[in-house]
Amino acid sequence: MPEINDSFNQEMLQMMKRSTPSEQVVGWFFTVSDLTESCEMYHDYYSRLVSDISMRKEQPPIILLTMDVSFSVENQARLPVRAYVRAEAGIPNKQQNHAVIFQPLKVELDAFPGEAVALGVVQKGTDAKDRTALLDVGIEHLEKSTEEMINWLERLQTYVNEVLKQKEMPSDSSMGRRLMDIVNTANTQLPPEKLERLVKNSLRDYMMISYLANLTKTQLSLQERMLIG
Amino acid sequence: MAALAEAKVDVVQIDSLVVMKIVKHVDSEFYSGMTEVAGETCSGILTGLISMEEKKLEVTNCFATPRSESFIEGEETNQIAVSQVENKQEEVMEMLRRFRSMNIDYELVGFYQAHFFGACFTHEMVESLVDYQSSVQDGVCLIYDPVKTRQGKLSLHAYRLSKKALDLCVNTDWSPEVVKQAGLTYETMLEELPIVIKNSHLMNVMLAELALTPKSKPGIHLELGTRRSLEKCLRSIMFDIDELNKALANYNKYTQDKQKFDTMYNSLIQKRQLENEARVARGEAPIPLEDIKKSVKAPQLQTKNGMMEIFLDCCDTSAYADYAAEVTGENVAKLFLSEAFADNSSKDRSASIPR
Description:
By secondary structure, chain A is an alpha+beta fold. Chain A has 6 helices and 5 strands, in the order αβαβββαβααα. Chain B has an 8-stranded mixed β-sheet. In chain B, helix 9 (227-282) runs antiparallel to helix 11. The N and C termini of chain B lie far apart (66 Å). Strand 5 of chain A pairs antiparallel with strand 8 of chain B. Chain B: It is found in: Cytoplasm. Chain B: Belongs to the eIF-3 subunit H family.
């Protein structure tokens, strides 16, 4: 059974605490397809590590995350990531529990708002042949989303037209209800007068800011010519 | 001192792991409100390798560096500062050694920093760049802007000092004459390199998996409410421009003083020479010219580091102005889009309605 380098872990822990003080250790990961006996010992070691640094009296539960990098299970379409929490088990009404079970947990992926954006950019690389992606420049990003929106609106339109052509209402009215919701919120939250006011005021503010920004840049470039020449 | 070799890479290729790590580090600090501790922003070190044939710098991993703990005002502040700097360097070397034992690329290729609105140009950054570029000729500095990313567009830029700027820095001489001779402006001081993001195959699998889960808010960049950050940006522009004006006033005064000094010096020298000729004609020894130089003092530009302060301020202001211009452009476009949704809106833009 391979050993864990304790001093290495301690040093990394210290480093992490100093560089990102807002983060804490919550578990450990192992790249294996199925749990083995050594997992139990490693889990023990890591829970001891976590309880050493945490300030509370009782041990916080830590997670074991496994990812099967060899993709050994066949015909699986999803990424083999699993999470476990350790629990004691045994025959009820006996004093000591003689077994330990790793209970599987549901795995969900979440992200900070900034991370979600970065993820979107990185995901574009999945389609490219050499798996690369460039960063967006200027207004291209907005262009693409506008195109997407136009697509969605067109699909909605064809759907609505089809429903209107049929003589009876469709059996599943959830779509219709959602459309009603959207139209209602648009009407109540953003009535035409409010929108008009918003547009006119903001437009002038933005024009001013844009003018000032361009003025700053022109002044800077002029100044450069004067300094050099 | 040996001449520094010129950097040869044209492109910076970043692994998506590095992008996510940087974003995660900065965002988690941003979220807990700790972006600036003791005056330093979140920063870290980049590792990777340099590929000469394809002329690109591959960044394959990175790690965060701890910032100095805010120390209490006391007697030993100087000693604490020095020991902290040494500790930091030691920690970086330790980390690199650990990377090597874990089979991760351990060659230091640069550093990353997080700054609001991308205005990162400070004296310390330039000094760090000089350090990195003198040891690794292709070192770069990655600047990440968390504010812009939150509004929907990943903002990551790679900078390095141009060769001329590097020479000047190494000689630590930024007086106006030397700068003029080198023909350096604030635009040519720092070069920006294009960035390409690359994924590994395993990453692709995970990204495909993520694409299957429903996204929470697909249209973050379509939101209109960016006013507060714009205000902050403008305030910083005003502050920078004030500084810039002060520096420019200094520079103008310096050039005027220098001109006066030059004419005065020249006239003195000429008088001396005439006298000397007269004396030689009479057969006496000529008076040496050196004591003139000693008696009159040349004027000096009143800032430390000479022109570099001005350049850095210019770069900062330019970054702020870029941010403001880009965001306003996008917001105007968004406004027009939302206008298209409402019918019966009059196209009269001349009057603004009071709120």
